[in-house]
Amino acid sequence: MSNTKRPVELNFENLPLVCGGALAMVVNEKFQECRRDVRNRPGVKKKRRISLHIDLEPSEESASQGEFEEGIVSFEVGCNIPNKGMSIRVVEDSEGVKFSADAPDNARQNTIAFDEEP
Fold it and tell me: Is the pTM of this model over 0.70?
């Protein structure tokens, strides 16, 4: 008995078999990335999106013969997560642009350093 496997039809149901399961693994990683972002930032109402782009192009031989016999299928998996933005107030003086690390909403505020001796 032979241990050889026959080619499998490329369709949506068989995508988990592509590249030994690597495509499914990448899709699952992107899903987990989006899920973590939703869990960590539930106040951000924008949608998180996972995309799978599949491109099919004929091989050079098929293109020169005018009939499709074989080609290349490429897969691109992506995810779109809303940007993580933040802002602080800054002031400019003769020494440059400054901000207060302890009071990001007031760059001119001097805060008390409890761990320093007077």
Answer: no
